[in-house]
Structures are given as structure tokens and as C-alpha cells.
Specification:
Length: 371
């Protein structure tokens, strides 16, 4: 054992470094491409509401003051938006902060955590960090959620059920009927965490609001949302969680760092939330481009998973890391998946039309012209 690995808890040595993908600066240093399409992190190419910049400037002017540790204005605005009492809402430094907070507050060593697979790695990592054991329920071969397997996994009670709907990285989703089947199989002691980071893109008749379905459930629950995706505030770090009841939120809140959300982020989120028109434009533009990119990939003979999110999960036909490197050389950043069983898949975000064109041109070069 080295001095370093002795210094940290054994659970920490079991964590893989986060696969954050290349930054533009790293790509420039490596290949100096003439054009860059940054499609590795599911960011919103249009950006936030134009109302955000003035709100940010005003908040910056007051930066010597600590932020409101309870994010009261934002929680009030979200309460009105979601029709849920502000006492049941918690704000995080991104929803990843809330994932960590919930794990810290609830998981004991040896607990069993059930999740969908391939997964958003932090769903597993924070559980592992707390000494819990993660049980993965893999998607079906057609890259849809295996609801029967998930229900079967819940037959043995677990401390936590956590998954994203739509799922990241696959993009597939549970319909209302499917989510209903899963929730009916949950034991009273299981904390259900539904991560709805991509909910704005998925909204529609066959996509359920987990908070609406969970309301009144006899087991504890939380639904997590974020301003990083459709609201275009990834760089400011704001997420929010709705909890089944205020006492659960209050207990979990004790492990939150008091000033976790900075004042600029709080102010930006309040105004971003109020601009429904901008949000609708972002979502409509993304969905149109997702259809276009998906159809173009299919014409190239590439297998693409069904997606309700702002990304597509596709089969590279071989090692995804090498494939992604070839895309990098063409100025395109995607995320090669690193989890076992899916290392021939990569995830590409839906970007601006010209970025998507650049990606499709590079794909045509790599997999061959349409036949
Ligand atoms: C499913 C899912 N949950 C949570 C997050 C974290 O988002 P943030 O911390 O930016 O709110 C992401 C980011 O990619 C995600 O894909």
C-alpha cells in the first residue's frame, strides 16, 4: 500500500476517475482543428435566456456578500413553478451535488443500491463512496429499459433505487405505465431517487413526471432536476431536488455544505426559470436536430438507441475510445463510454446545426458513405 492509498478510505480507492471528456483547450493542444464541435457533455448550444446576463452582472456587483445559504428566492420561484411547497425543495451546486448529499445522508456500508445500466457514473460512485453495493439492471439488447428485470431486482428490498429518466447515457426512458410498475414494486424502506436532468427535452404524453407519480408514496423519495441542460447554465452549477416530505428534506439538508450555491448561480436560475419562451425554443430546436442527426446516422448504418434527451448513444462498431480519438482528430468531441459491456458505444450531444453537420461529416468519413 502506498502512503496515498493508506490515507484514504478503501471505498475511495475503488472509484474510477470521472470521465469528463476533453475540453476545447485540450483538443486545441492535441489537434489544433480548424473547427470544433463540442458534443461530449450534453450542453445546450443556444445557451441560457438573454435575461440571465444582466442578472449575473447585478449579482457579481454584490459578490463580497455570502450567498443566501437557503437559496430562498430560487426555492420560492421553483415552488411556484412546480406547485410544490418550498420546504420540500433543496438547491445544489449542480444536481451532482444533490446526488452526493443524498448519498451521504442516507447510505450505510453494505447497503444495496439498485440502478439502471449503463448508468450516469455518479449514481454508482457516490453509493460506492459510502460503502454501498451497487446492483446494475442492464438495458435490453435493443437499448430500452428492462422493466421486468428492474421489478425483479426490487423483489429483494434495497436502501435506494436510483436512475435517470430519460437515462444517461442511453437516452431511453420509462413511460408512465412502466414507471408505475416499478414504483408499485418498491419496498417501504427504499428511497427512490429519480434523476430528471433531461426532463425538459422529454416532456410529452409518454413521459411521466416522477414527482407527480410519487406524490403521496409510502416510501421516501426525491426527484432531481438541473439548470445545466435545457436552461443552459452548466457553467454556473445549479440543480434542484424535490423531496417526498419536508422532514426528509430537512434531515438530508444537514449534510449539505451551507453555502453550496453561489449568489450568481442563484440569481441566474431565478431569471432563467421565468423565461418559458426561451426554454421552448431551446427544446424545439434540439428535438428537430436530434431527429435529423438520428436519421442521418441510421442512413450511415449506425445503430442508435432511442432517445428522449439531448444526446444519442450510438454503436461505434469497435473500440469507442479509438473511434472517439478519430473524431477528435476531426475536431469533434464525443464521449466514448467506458463501462464494461458498452465500450463500443459513444454518446454524442445534440449541438448547434453546424456542429451536428461537422459530426455527421466526420462520421461519414469514418463509417463510409451512405450506401
Ligand atoms: C443524468 C444526469 N444527472 C445529473 C447530471 C449532473 O448535472 P449537473 O450537476 O450539471 O446538474 C448529469 C450531467 O450530465 C446527468 O447526465
Amino acid at each position: 500500500m502506498s502512503q496515498s492509498s493508506d490515507a484514504v478510505r478503501p471505498e475511495v480507492t475503488r472509484l474510477a476517475p470521472y470521465n469528463a471528456g476533453l475540453t476545447v483547450a485540450e483538443l486545441m493542444a492535441r489537434y489544433a482543428p480548424a473547427r470544433i464541435a463540442k458534443l461530449g457533455s450534453n450542453e445546450n448550444p443556444i445557451g441560457p435566456s438573454p435575461r440571465v446576463a444582466p442578472a449575473v452582472a447585478a449579482a457579481v456587483a454584490a459578490m463580497r456578500i455570502y450567498p443566501d445559504p437557503a437559496s430562498r428566492d430560487l426555492r420560492r420561484a421553483l415552488a411556484e413553478h412546480a406547485g410544490i411547497a418550498a420546504e420540500r425543495i433543496m438547491i445544489g451546486n449542480g444536481s451532482e451535488d444533490l446526488l452526493a448529499i443524498v448519498a451521504r445522508a442516507t447510505l450505510r456500508p453494505g447497503d444495496r443500491v439498485v440502478t439502471l445500466y449503463p448508468s450516469f457514473p455518479l449514481h454508482e460512485d457516490y453509493a460506492t463512496m459510502m460503502g454501498a453495493t451497487v446492483e446494475r439492471v442492464a438495458v435490453r439488447p435493443d437499448l430500452t429499459v428492462d422493466v421486468d428485470a428492474l421489478v425483479a431486482a426490487l423483489a429483494t428490498p434495497c436502501r435506494m433505487l436510483i436512475f435517470a429518466n430519460p437515462m444517461n447515457p442511453v437516452g431511453c426512458w420509462l413511460t408512465g405505465a412502466e414507471l408505475g410498475r416499478v414504483l408499485a414494486a418498491v419496498s417501504p424502506e427504499t428511497l427512490v431517487v429519480v434523476d430528471e436532468a433531461y426532463a425538459e427535452y422529454a416532456a410529452g404524453p409518454d413521459y411521466p413526471s416522477a414527482a407527480t407519480m410519487l406524490e403521496g408514496a409510502s416510501h421516501p423519495w426525491a426527484v432531481l432536476r438541473t439548470f445545466s441542460k435545457a436552461y443552459g447554465l452548466a457553467g454556473l452549477r445549479v440543480g434542484w431536488g424535490i423531496f417526498g416530505e419536508a422532514p426528509l428534506r430537512d434531515l438530508i439538508d444537514r449534510v449539505r455544505t451551507p453555502f453550496n450555491v453561489n449568489a450568481v448561480a442563484q440569481a441566474a436560475a431565478v431569471v432563467a426559470l421565468a423565461d418559458d419562451t426561451h426554454l421552448a425554443e431551446v427544446v424545439a430546436g434540439t428535438l428537430a436536430e436530434r431527429t435529423r442527426v438520428g436519421e442521418a446516422l441510421a442512413r450511415l448504418g449506425v445503430t442508435v438507441a432511442p432517445s428522449k434527451a439531448n444526446f444519442l448513444f450510438f454503436d461505434c462498431g469497435g473500440d469507442a475510445t479509438a473511434f472517439a480519438e478519430a473524431l477528435l482528430a476531426r475536431g469533434v468531441i464525443v464521449k466514448p463510454w467506458k463501462q464494461p459491456g458498452y465500450r463500443h458505444f459513444a454518446r454524442v450531444s445534440i449541438g448547434a446545426p453546424e456542429e451536428n453537420d461537422q459530426f455527421l461529416e466526420a462520421m461519414a468519413e469514418l463509417v463510409g458513405a451512405p450506401g
